Amino acid sequence: MKKTFYLTPSYWVSIIPLTLVFLALGIYMVIFYIQFEEITFSNIVFLAIFNLMSIGAAGIFIKFLSGTKVITNSTGIEYQSLFLVYRSNWEDLRCAGWVAQGRAGYAFVLYSLNPEVERKTWRRRSDQKNTQTDNSKGIPITWFGDYKSKNLLAEIHEYAPHLFSED
73, 151, 155, 165: which one has the fewest Cβ atoms less than 10 Å from its Cβ? Predict the structure, then answer.
């Protein structure tokens, strides 16, 4: 049965500072215009458009972040991020352990011996030479699922028990 796991709530907290930055820029523009410019219809329209663009930029970030997910089924696992789709069957999965993930800190990563990596359309055009690093990225499983119920971990344990063996 196909199951989908989204980012845990702790990763959604990263949206709050970004949204506040965009809104602060909008408020700064309003204060700047009130102090140094005449209040005209064109200034009000400019400020309204600027604030809407700020909120829209935060919304785009939220949309991309909400598209990051892990999908499991009986044949394999799929990781969809902003940049790529990483697929593997259960037999090829291996454990990389705790790996640094940039600003996100550390994550427990699974990688595949034979991954199927598909770049998102916009990224295919921007960077053609970096397929080797895409193949080695893996799936940061600690980012997904409800950490209290361990649903994703249970799925992995069911379909890939070789990851939990001692040898």
Answer: 165
